[in-house]
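Incident log, structure service

09:12 report received: a user says their structure output differs between two submissions of the same chain.
09:20 pulled the input from the user's history:
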Amino acid sequence: MFLPTARHTIDSSKDTQFSDAWVLLAILLTLVGLSLNNSVLTTAAVLLLVVAGISWLWAAASLRELTYHRRFSENRAFQGETIELALELHNAKLLPQPWVTVRDLFPTELPVAEIKLDVNPSTNLAEFRTFWMAGPFQRITRRFQVHCTVRGFHPYGPADLTTGDAFGFFVRTATQPAQEHLIVYPRLYTVAELRLPTKHPFGAARAPDSLYQDPLRPAGIRPWEPGDPMRRIHWKATARQQEMLSRIYEPSEEQVIQIFLNVATLVRHWHGYIPELQERAISVAGSLAELASAERLPVGLIANGALPGSDQALRLLPGRSPSQLMHILELLAAVTPFATQPIEELLVEQAPHLPWGATIVVVSAIAHEELLVTLMELAAVGRRVVLFTLAEEPPRRLMGNVTVYHLPHLIDDLIAPVEVKPSATRHTP
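09:34 re-ran on a clean worker, output below:
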């Protein structure tokens, strides 16, 4: 969904760094040799000029047909997994490259096994330097293990390649702008870890009666009644039974899950955030999306966080396509930590655009008064509302028709335990 098209060719380079000292030395030796009529100095000067010329030509051709690649064994991984990163240098020409140095930019959050990355404090990017010696038409591959310890959308690159002639007289440097991205999904909890009921964790499956029927979901046939539209008539069954028959459709009000994620961990979101608590809330949202997808329910995601480079709230409407869960997990991997607006404002804005039968599932690390009031107002007008909260204490007020799941066991290691925490509790009217 977010992966850009990568370019693997070196398409920009810096000017050759010409070694003026050797040329000046050759000219000086030539002048001194001619003035003194000294054949030794003159011969040495000529040889030096020849070597400098060969070195210059060698350096000029050093970057041609020289490519550098990064390849991941998987471009997507879950938090806690380890994947393989292969770095490859290919010299596709007859001219050997006795020395090549590569300075590649790596994300600081993901450690590389047995390798220490140099972090540039000015850019907060890690620099991974490697040295290569490539013969004619040689391809060299080195493999490293990357530990996916932090959720995110992690870029690798660009890389700077530096090489030149075998004598080191001349140096050529080029930048390869191609980037690869490693998407690390948040950790997902099982139903047992969330301590949710196995039946209907999102509430009742469907209202018993519905004013609308779904023409894509036929459930049987019945005798034709005056007022039935022509498209409802089951013509094949009518021909067989010699009686006008109409189709019966299932109610269209199926359970639709719309997850609202509150990335804020403080009541006033502009005061900052608590990273560990926020990550657990994101994991709960991803786990609920996986649960809905496993039950074949249309599921979507709306969050008051944004994607990198954007200031708009993240929004994906419910769907049941095979790729819907992957899209949700990618959005959760890339969501920024700072809230764009209070979650209660986002709920008021987006709720009118949802199907009336949709179940509004709110995941929040905090359960502050403004959010609870908004949820009760939505429930009062007939909306199905479920709250999953990681707050230390459950809501103390009666929540009316709002179903509340309190998950304190997911944050026990983040707070000083003063008493035995209860299991996840479900508060229903």
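09:41 both user submissions now match this output. Likely a transient worker issue. Closing.
09:42 reviewer note: The longest helix spans residues 39-60. The first strand starts at residue 12 and ends at 13.
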